[in-house]
Here is the input.
Amino acid sequence: MALPVQRKRSKSLSLSENLIRKLNILWYEEMKNRIGRNEKISFSEFVESLIWEALKRRMEKCGGD
Here is the structure.
């Protein structure tokens, strides 16, 4: 699931309150699943991983790399 990502951030996103609320619920559920494994992920890292996954699926549909 983890793709190499550039650590330096140069862009920011503006998200609706409704989207942030839904993402926060998903992140909270993910954190509950990880609690026994002592793995933590920040909200930003979680959202970034979701975006990477969506891009990967989209690129696979389009036949891209």
